[in-house]
Design goal:
EC number: 2.6.1.88
Strand content: 5-15%
CATH class of the largest domain: Alpha Beta
CATH topology of the largest domain: Aspartate Aminotransferase, domain 2
Distance between the termini: 49 Å
GO molecular function, one term: methionine-oxo-acid transaminase activity
Cofactor: pyridoxal 5'-phosphate
Radius of gyration: 21 Å
Pfam family, one: Aminotran_1_2
Protein name: Methionine aminotransferase
Amino acid sequence: MQISSKQPNIGTTIFTVMSQLAAETGALNLSQGFPNYNCSPKLIELVNHYMKMGMNQYAPMAGIMPIREILAQKTFDLYGMTYNPNDEITIVSGCTEALYVTMTAILHKDDEVIVFEPAYDSYVPAIELNGGKAVYVTLSSENDFAINWQEVQSKITNKTKAILLTTPHNPTGKCLTQSDVDSLAALVKNTNIFVISDEVYEHIIFDGRKHISPAMHADLKERTFVCGSFGKTFHTTGWKLGYCLAPKELSAEFRKAHQWITFSCPTPFQYAFADFLKEPDNYLSVTQFYQEKRDKFIHWLRGSRFTLTPAEGSFFQMVSYKNITDEPDYDLAVRWTKEIGVASIPISVFYADKIDNKILRFCFAKDDEMLEKAAERLCKL
């Protein structure tokens, strides 16, 4: 039997490739974005508690009410945004599902979605599998990856269905500013363009910056899907639990698709997070935790020949190796994994045309021992 591929140009994700190579060679894995330390023991106790309590059957399709209620309260307390837990908050199997479901809910054949590249690798496949087309706005390393809103405006056509944003951005670590959100609001005013906002790193923002969601703008909230995750905030990426915040009419269509893709998410995890979120320090402390890791990693790299701008958010640090070699970034990432035992992600894979700016991405969501050892090896180059 032969199958006509819907994604003939898509291979294995770079994260799987580099993590597998790191495992095969025994390299320090600073490629894929997951911590190498455990989550809170309290969180594990809560999951175990609810498993023993018998909370092991299907949860409601939209998520258990306690977790939706605490998310509504948290969102209001932090950002002043009001979402009704009954019909405007949906629990999903991680942010990747939230993004895919959003595309399924809103896209029709040949609809266009504006995507900023370098772009996380699940975005474009989700658009194309749902009949849409990605329209790229390329962020320039020479402009510190800031968004040129005039260029965005030039890419809008009568087929534009949505604009997909990430803040903090992966892989650059760039955060949206109030000026960005104001520009976006002016650009989509009096249009039927949706905004899809990937905010999985909302609590991992540095140097006193504040998280700014497009939905915080009064003129954007009605058209915005906010996609979030518990995995990045609470060091539980393997639990695959996230959420989508959207106005009632948008959530209704979102749930129509969600019920066929996942239907419901693990019940004991939902109850555990519902309890864990009641203590704000459990998520507010994450900012300082990761800023200290970013600062240590940068400090340990100071003796190297890399050049870098400290990440504004996320748990990734991009570094330029232009002073070391002209080798293509993909080849270099593979070679250094094998030869010096440090795995990274080449940034060119996040571009449609594989633009090579001689930049690698390192994940600093690792214990200090691993980060220091990796930096020591990198400084010898």
